[in-house]
Amino acid sequence: xxxxxxxxxxxxxxxxxxxxxxxxxxxxxxxxxxxxxxxxxxxxxxxxxxxxxxxxxxxxxxxxxxxxxxxxxxxxxxxxxxxxxxxxxxxxxxxxxxxxxxxxxxxxxxxxxxxxxxxxxxxxxxxxxxxxxxxxxxxxxxxxxxxxxxxxxxxxxxxxxxxxxxxxxxxxxxxxxxxxxxxxxxxxxxxxxxxxxxxxxxxxxxxxxxxxxxxxxxxxxxxxxxxxxxxxxxxxxxxxxxxxxxxxxxxxxxxxxxxxx
Length: 261
Hints:
D-Maltodextrin-Binding Protein, domain 2; disordered N terminus; 2 domains; five-stranded mixed beta sheet; alpha/beta; 27% strand; 12 strands; single chain; 41% helix
């Protein structure tokens, strides 16, 4: 009997300890805002010479965490597909990655606009010159092996699917796409206009061709992605972003990172 009581007491004690540990762990997790991003996506998020994350989205995430009274954990997930998977599995609280708001994404995610403008065109970005025969994206059908880069998992990649005569080349970042085009590994890459404009300021060799968009591919600014099963977090972030717009913090951060043009 004594052995039974000792065993029972030990089991109960272990159970209580386990519950306490779980509660403590949950409390610790709740005290941290976990944000999925991808590096190599200037000016939203890059890794500096000291190995630290920096960029517009890093600063926005830090401001949100501060206003929530939480610490900040950034997870560099490499590309959009892992970001979306982590969000679906609740491994991150939100995704901040200069994420275009599209009708397709709105069907799957809660998205809160925090920067950017409506986009009715994409831009084909070429190096040095645009072939004389290319006046529109439809003219690419006249070229053999027309290889066009697009960010993996992006609206631009999906947009290219309708052009069967284009060889699509998914890549992880805008910088990688630019280098691919620069060194002749692909003909061009497709990106949203604001990013194309920044590249043109940095590289005089860049030439761009606008591509008009049908409604289903139009973009309504950039948004913070949140799992639709977390309406309370969505409501909190909406209120915080509204406050950050009112008090000028978002505008100041846009100016700091060259987004306020």
